[in-house]
Structures are given as structure tokens and as C-alpha cells.
Design a protein that fits this description.
The complex is a heterotrimer of chains A (108), B (112) and C (628). Chain A has 108 residues and is an all-alpha fold. In chain A, 78% of the residues lie in helices and 0% in strands. The termini of chain A are far apart. The N terminus of chain A is likely disordered. By secondary structure, chain B is an all-alpha fold. Chain B has one domain. Helix content of chain B is 79%, strand content 0%. Chain B is built from five helices and no strands. The longest helix of chain B has 26 residues. Chain B starts with a helix and ends in a 9-residue tail after the last helix. Chain C folds into two domains: 289 residues, no CATH class; 244 residues, no CATH class. Chain C has an eight-stranded antiparallel sheet, with helices on both faces. In chain C, strand 3 and strand 4 form a beta hairpin. The C terminus of chain C is likely disordered. Classes of the chains: A mainly alpha (108), B mainly alpha (112), C alpha+beta (628). Chains in contact: A-C, B-C. Chains A and C meet through helix 2 and helix 3 of A and helix 1, helix 10, helix 12, helix 14 and helix 15 of C. Chain C: This is PepSY-associated TM helix domain-containing protein. Chain C: Keywords: Membrane, Transmembrane, Transmembrane helix. Chain C: Pfam families: PepSY_TM. Chain B: Pfam families: DUF3325. Chain B: This is DUF3325 domain-containing protein.
Chain lengths: 108, 112, 628
């Protein structure tokens, strides 16, 4: 994590230390971030799971809710806001990239 | 009727589990049970739970039987918890004490 | 807790549990309570329609039903007879005229008749509350409309004013729309008055063969609808709100499990009379002892709303055609409608066939009979189970089909083909949530677990206040936030209980022949609930609890009396004559009323402990004693 040595990391450090910013950002990440990742996960899983189409969709939705819950837990439990954000943004980027690479391209 | 049987089995099983736990053994028997006996109570309790589950599954099929079993488990456990707090005598506390007293003479440890 | 300081997982999860539970806690309580009551939706509706209490079982009932149908619908293409049974004392009769297209897959039809709210035979509800014709809708329909609503916005035809945007591309294709959907639309448009899709619907007294026209009531269907669509707002919006609340609930539950250190060690622990500790014990006990139920009901609630809140899976996998997914999900196969031959022939005697079907399903019983082409040489008689046998198949009832002329078995009950495991899990969750497979015993256990869930939510809400007692003592006053939670707790918990019981009272006190009485009933519900808020704000915290709980308890306790005076079957009679649906309501009212009064009394006589040394001291000693 970013400790306060480099000047570039001053803002994150400020966020970490300001209670309402810290909490507020986590709440936003938990509500919207985890949901976004879960949505992406359902989309990806529904087309990649080696099951029949309907079963893959069902499994994706069920796993999606699990992903969302784990995401929320991660965001709240992470030591710093930066880690919390990383745990949401990284999967989001990876999932997003994978979704772009899908042959069919999807519909949404 | 079968549901009643599995309920009774469940209840006995849960009570045996209780006896195997120190805190509740004190409520029920006045003292903790010696290690081997407590372990025995726990094993018997688990077996009774398993038995009631099998009874329900045999009667209603796997999925609905398990559902019914969980429902009965909740019911039995709730009854047991309330009885433990308010009416331990109804759980046969005296009987349990008498049995334990007979088996261990004056009992494994001093009673309050 | 501060996020910028080092803290353990438990502490973070405790924070999450507290706030995820509190923020939407009152809504969750309302969803839980109305949802729990929905397990007895039919029975509640029956209780609210005392006209139906006079129905008595009779062996000749089926013959009477047939002759009644023969009189009122001689030329119908299909008769449907919901038999009286565990959930209804009357025959529910409806029919489809020859011209009407069915367009429904078989499973949904089965659900409709076997399980629709009015089904189990509470058949002939009057044209229900306009705009809330919940009675004729079923889960299948919900699912249907819901999935369709996910249609891409650009396909909006604008034809469907009410749900235009959301209804999407299925908008203009009326011919393709299923009967269910037609029913729903009529209902949803408000004032469609009836929304029948299978034709008119009557209820018949088995003992006399006469039709009974019960009073109009919002019945249990209002509570059922409310628990996932709230009231008076756009359906999609309401489902979003409920879906978000359900997500909060799920997160609160998982985090609660993480912070509960000794699930097994504290499994049987409840220590009454110890202030905060007792509340924590009660919260833990109601949560843990019914944990399988709580997890199941919350997760399956998410799945039932999944198309609303997790739409991407279907969009990607089905290229945006949610309709396609819907069809595949419900595994619809069109019913093979046998054509009329034109040659008339008397119908085979039903009694022996019914007997054969009952022998086939000794446990589940027969729920409904469908007669296609009655009076024609090509008639078909189909018997359906009252309840399904396996959750993996959505508890889908089996059926037996007989030739209508000679009574020969044409189609033996098929064991449904085993679904794939994922599908089985999904179906199992749905079936568990809806509880349509449940025998009376199971239904009561679901109900009991639901009540435990209500207590869990309510005790959690109360604990938020109790846990902060020391803060208040230190501050010397009650901060606004605390007071807000106190007031909302009273109005959200006790106030809702009061509103619910007043809803039952209203249903009996409003004259039976008033037009639009279901709207009045619902208005009573909301007015009482709304009034609970200023009352809670104006009285002290304790007075508010005592008064609202006490009044709710008293009114609940008096419900059996109201039933007796209001023309219903009074308790001794319903017990003696075996009307378990009515007796069950009254007995439950007595029990719940007594509990509420007890709660009010305990609150009234409660001597508050200060959170200083005494309480900590006793709790501490207790702990030492136990761990010694």
C-alpha cells in the first residue's frame, strides 16, 4: 500500500485519514462497485460456463450474488481504502476486458 | 404421526447434545459430565439427529424430507432453548440427575 | 469503529452487519412479516370472506360441481375444477370457452390452478381489487412479466402505457402473449376488473352445489403482493427496492455468521432477564436456529428477483432476448389440445377415476381436475396432484390423463425427467420460497420460521438502540439519530403489526356490499401504519412500544371473536367441523395476540438497567461462572 512518503500518495493518505471520506468511499464501493463486478461476473459466466445455456445462466446468477456478497465483505474488511478499491477495480477491468474479447460480443 | 416420531427423536438428540456441552449440562444435570460420558452424549445426540433425518427422507423423499427435517430441527431447538431457560424441570432434569447420581455415586463433582 | 485504524475482520464485519441490517431494517421487517403471512395467503383470504365458511365437505360435491358446470358452461372447451382440500373448503370452478386460445404451457397452467392464490380452490374470488388483481396471478406470471420487462429499451413500442418502456419488445404482439400475461395486464392496468384468463371463476359449496359469491376483499393477496411489490408504485421500481433490501439482508446475514464466534457452542443459549445480553441471545437464537430457513428464503428471494437485479446474465447468454430465456427456464411444452370430434358422448363417471388418482398419490392427494371437451366423444380428464413430490422439479405436480368417454388411462403420471443439477438447485430454491409443495405441517413450520425471522429482524433493530445506551448516558441526552431509530423501530415493528391486525378488522367492519371495499381495507392498513409514526414520535419510547404492542395484541386476541360476530365460523365450530383453514387462523391469532400482549406487559414492567457497573458486573460474573 501507499504510505505517505512519496508526494503522489498524499491524497490517498488524506482519504485514509479522513473518517467520513474513508467510510463514504467504502460504502460507495460496496454498493456500486461490488454490484458492478457481480454484474460483469454473471455476464461472463453465463457465456463461458461449460453447461447448457439455461443452466449456465442460472449458475451465473447464483454465483453473481455470491460474488457481490464477497465483494462487499472485501471492501469493508480491506485494511485501506486503496486496497478495497483495488479489489474492485482490478476484477472489473479484467472482467471487462474478457467480456470485450467474447466472440459474440454480447447484447448489453 | 411420523413427523411426531422424528420430532421426538430430534428433541432427544438435541437434549443429548446439550448434555454433552458443559454450560447446558450444568443446567440439566447440575454439573458437567465427565469427558467420556459427554462425548458419548454428543455421539448419541448426533446419531439421533441423523436417524430423524433418515426417517423424514424415507417418508417424504430427499428434497422435501430434508426441508421438513430442517423445519422440525428449528422447532425442536426452539422448544428446547425456551424450556432450558424457563422450565428446565420439564426436560427431565431430575431424571437425568438421578441417573447420573446412580452411575457415579455422589456424582462427578459437587453440586450447587 | 474507525476504518483508518487497524481492526480485525470481526470488527469490520460487525460494522457491516450493524449498518446493512439497520439501513433497510424496517423495510426488511415489513417484507419478512407480510411474506410470512403469505404462506397462509389462501387461508387469510378465506378468513376474510366469511361467506365461504358455511361450505361443508360432501362426497357428492364433485357430481354437483359437474352438473353446475354443465349448466353454466355447457359448450366450454375446458372445465377446470379445483377440489376442496387442505387449503380451501369450496370447489373452485372455471372454464374456457371454445374460442379462447390457451397459449399457455402446461407447467404454468398447473401452477395456475393448483397454486394460484385463489386456487387450492378458494376459487371464485369476486373481481378482486381493481388494479391489484393479485388473485388471478401466479408466480409464473410474475416471472413472465418480469423477464419480459427486461426487454431492451429501444424496442419499446409505447403501446403499453403503464409498463411501456419496460415491457419492451413483447409489447405489441398480443396474439403471442400468454393467458397469464393477459391476466396480469388486465390486473395491472387497474380497473380491468377480473383479469381472468381462464374464463370466469366460481366457488361452489360442496354440500349444496350452490354458488357462493363471497365479498370482495384484498385478502391475503394484498399482503403477498406487498412483500415483493410494495404498493402503489411502479412494479419494476418496487422490485428494485425489495431486491436491494434483500441484498442488504443477505450481506447482513453472511456478515452476521462471520461475527458469531460460537455458533455451535452458543446454539442452545438464551439467558433471559439480563438486558443487552438477553437481546443478543434472542437475536442469535432466532437467527441461528432457523438459519437454514433464513439463508434459503433470502437467497431464493434474490433468485426470484434476479431478472430485475442481475439482468446481464440473461442478456449475454440470450443475446438480449429475455423472453427466450424465460421460455427455456420454465421448460414450457405446449399442451397437446385434442380437437373436438363433434360427436357428443356422456362423460365417464369421475368418482372411480378420482379414486384411482388418489390411490396413485396417497400422500399428495388430488388437487385439481381438468376436463377438456366435456360432453364430446373426444373428452379428456386430467387429474393433478395437490402438491408436487420433488423440489428439484419446482415441486411441479404430476398428472394422470384419462379418456373422457370410457375412463381409460391415457397418460400415466410421468416422473419428471431429472433436471440438470444447476437447474435442480435453482428450482429447489424457488420451490422452497414459494412453499407450494408444503403439506400443512410444513407450511406451519415455514410460517414459524418466518416468525422467527421477524423476531430476528426486530430484535436486531432494537439492539441497535440498546447497544448505544451507554453513549446516550455519556452524552446526557438522546441524540437525534438515536431518537429517529427509536421512533422508526416502534412504527416499523409494532406499528406494522398494528396495521396488519387493523387490516383484518377493517375487512370485517367494512360492510360487505360496498363497492371497492378492498381499496378501503388497504387504505385502513396504510392509515394505521402511518398514524403509528406520529404516535411513536409523540410518546416516550417505552410508552409507544407498550401502547402499540398492547393494542396490536389486544386486537389480535379479539380476532376470533370478530370472526364469530362477523358471520364467520367461530372457533369451536370450525374446530369441531374440521375447518382447519379458519380454525388455524383463529388459533394463530390467539397465540400471536397473547405473545404481543406479553411483550407489551414485559416492556411496561421492565426496570431498565443502567449500562454502568451493575449490568457489566452481573454479566461478567455470569461469564465467569459459566467458564469456571
Amino acid at each position: 500500500m501507499t504510505s505517505g512518503t512519496a508526494p503522489a500518495s498524499r491524497l490517498p493518505a488524506l482519504i485514509e485519514r479522513t473518517a467520513w471520506l474513508n467510510t463514504g468511499l467504502r460504502v460507495l464501493l460496496a454498493i456500486f462497485g461490488a454490484y458492478g463486478v457481480a454484474l460483469q461476473a454473471t455476464a461472463l459466466l453465463s457465456v463461458t460456463l461449460p453447461l447448457s445455456r439455461i443452466e449456465a445462466t442460472m449458475a451465473a446468477i447464483m454465483l453473481g450474488f455470491i460474488v457481490q456478497t464477497l465483494g462487499v465483505i472485501w471492501v469493508i474488511a480491506a485494511r485501506t481504502v486503496a486496497r478495497a478499491a483495488l479489489g474492485i477495480i482490478l476484477p472489473a477491468v479484467v472482467l471487462g476486458a474478457l467480456l470485450q474479447c467474447l466472440p459474440s460480443g454480447g447484447a448489453a | 404421526m411420523m413427523a411426531l416420531a422424528s420430532f421426538v427423536l430430534l428433541f432427544i438428540g438435541l437434549e443429548a447434545l446439550c448434555l454433552g456441552m458443559d454450560r447446558h449440562a450444568r443446567q440439566l444435570a447440575g454439573s458437567t459430565l465427565p469427558g467420556p460420558l459427554a462425548r458419548c452424549a454428543r455421539v448419541l445426540g448426533c446419531m439421533a439427529l441423523l436417524g430423524s433425518a433418515m426417517l423424514e427422507i424415507a417418508q417424504r423423499g430427499l428434497s422435501i424430507g430434508l426441508t421438513a427435517w430442517f423445519g422440525l430441527l428449528t422447532l425442536a431447538a426452539m422448544t428446547l432453548v425456551l424450556a432450558l431457560s424457563y422450565r428446565p424441570a420439564w426436560l427431565g432434569a431430575r431424571l437425568i440427575r438421578a441417573l447420573l447420581g446412580r452411575a457415579f455415586g455422589s456424582g462427578p463433582s459437587a453440586r450447587p | 469503529m474507525r476504518f483508518d485504524q487497524a481492526r480485525g475482520l470481526r470488527k469490520s464485519m460487525s460494522w457491516l452487519h450493524t449498518w446493512a441490517g439497520l439501513v433497510l431494517g424496517w423495510l426488511l421487517f415489513a417484507i419478512f412479516l407480510t411474506g410470512t403471512l403469505s404462506y397462509f395467503r389462501n387461508e387469510i383470504t378465506l378468513w376474510m370472506q366469511p361467506e365461504l365458511h358455511s361450505a361443508r365437505p360432501d362426497e357428492k360435491g364433485l357430481d354437483r360441481a359437474l352438473s353446475l358446470l354443465g349448466r353454466v358452461a355447457p359448450g366450454a372447451a375446458q372445465w377446470q375444477i379445483a377440489l376442496p382440500g387442505e387449503r380451501s373448503p369450496v370447489f373452485g370452478l372455471n372454464w374456457r370457452e371454445a374460442g379462447e386460445t390457451e397459449g399457455r404451457g402446461r407447467p404454468s397452467m398447473v401452477e395456475d390452478d393448483g397454486d394460484g392464490p385463489s386456487s387450492g380452490g378458494l376459487g371464485a374470488q369476486p373481481p378482486g381489487p381493481p388494479g391489484r388483481r393479485a388473485g388471478r396471478e401466479n408466480r409464473g406470471a410474475d416471472e413472465g412479466a418480469q423477464w419480459r420487462r427486461q426487454g431492451p429499451p429501444e424496442a419499446s413500442s409505447g403501446l403499453e402505457a403503464r409498463e411501456g418502456r419496460s415491457r419492451g419488445r413483447s409489447g405489441g404482439r398480443g396474439a403471442e402473449r400468454s393467458g397469464e400475461e393477459r391476466g396480469r395486464e388486465r390486473g395491472g392496468r387497474g380497473g380491468g376488473g377480473g383479469g381472468e384468463h381462464g374464463g370466469p371463476r366460481l366457488s361452489m359449496n360442496p354440500a349444496t352445489g350452490g354458488m357462493i359469491a363471497p365479498r370482495e376483499t384484498a385478502g391475503g393477496d394484498f399482503l403477498y403482493r406487498f412483500h415483493f411489490e410494495l404498493y402503489g408504485m411502479d412494479r419494476a421500481l418496487a422490485r428494485w427496492i425489495v431486491g436491494i433490501a434483500t441484498l442488504f439482508m443477505f450481506v447482513a446475514m453472511v456478515s452476521g455468521i462471520i461475527i458469531h464466534r460460537n455458533i455451535f457452542k452458543d446454539f442452545f443459549t438464551f439467558r433471559p432477564g439480563k438486558g443487552k445480553r438477553s437481546w443478543l441471545d434472542a437475536h442469535n437464537a432466532t437467527s441461528v436456529l432457523a438459519l437454514p430457513f433464513h439463508l434459503m428464503i433470502t437467497f431464493s428471494g434474490l433468485l426470484l428477483l434476479a431478472n430485475q437485479i442481475m439482468p446481464w446474465a440473461a442478456h449475454y447468454a440470450y443475446g438480449g432476448s429475455v423472453r427466450a430465456m424465460m421460455g427455456e427456464m420454465k421448460n414450457m411444452h405446449a399442451e397437446s389440445a385434442s380437437p373436438r370430434s363433434g360427436e357428443s358422448a356422456p362423460l365417464a363417471a369421475l368418482a372411480p377415476l378420482l379414486e384411482a388418482a388418489r390411490r396413485q398419490w396417497p400422500q399428495e392427494g388430488v388437487g385439481a381436475i381438468t376436463i377438456s371437451n366435456p360432453g364430446d366423444a373426444n373428452a379428456r380428464i386430467e387429474f393433478r396432484q395437490a402438491r408436487g413430490v420433488s423440489l428439484a422439479t419446482r415441486a411441479y405436480p404430476q398428472s394422470m390423463v384419462f379418456d373422457g368417454r370410457n375412463g381409460q388411462l391415457l397418460e400415466a403420471p410421468r416422473a419428471a425427467e431429472a433436471p440438470g443439477s444447476v437447474r435442480a438447485i435453482w428450482s429447489g430454491f424457488n420451490a422452497l420460497h414459494l412453499g407450494r409443495f408444503a403439506s400443512p405441517l410444513l407450511r406451519w413450520m415455514f410460517f414459524g420460521s418466518g416468525i422467527l425471522g421477524c423476531v430476528m429482524v426486530a430484535s436486531g433493530l432494537v439492539m441497535w438502540v440498546i447497544a448505544r445506551q451507554r453513549d446516550r448516558e455519556r452524552a446526557g441526552h438522546t441524540p437525534f439519530g438515536h431518537r429517529l431509530v427509536e421512533v422508526l423501530n416502534v412504527a416499523g415493528v409494532a406499528g406494522l403489526l398494528l396495521a396488519t391486525v387493523c387490516y383484518f378488522w377493517a375487512s370485517r367492519l367494512i360492510p360487505a356490499d360496498i363497492i371497492g371495499r378492498s381499496r378501503l381495507e388497504i387504505a385502513c392498513f396504510f392509515i394505521v401504519w402511518l398514524l403509528a409514526l406520529p404516535h411513536a414520535a409523540l410518546r416516550t419510547h417505552r410508552e409507544a412500544w407498550v401502547e402499540q404492542l398492547g393494542l396490536a395484541g389486544l386486537l389480535t386476541l379479539l380476532l376470533p371473536l370478530l370472526n364469530a360476530l362477523g358471520g364467520g365460523a367461530w372457533l369451536p365450530l370450525s374446530l369441531v367441523s374440521g375447518q382447519w383453514q379458519v380454525a388455524g387462523f383463529d388459533v394463530a391469532a390467539l397465540g400471536i395476540g397473547a405473545l404481543l400482549i406479553l411483550a407489551a406487559w414485559r416492556t411496561h414492567t421492565h426496570v431498565p438497567r443502567s449500562s454502568t457497573t451493575t449490568q457489566v458486573g452481573t454479566a461478567g460474573t455470569q461469564l465467569q461462572m459459566e467458564e469456571a
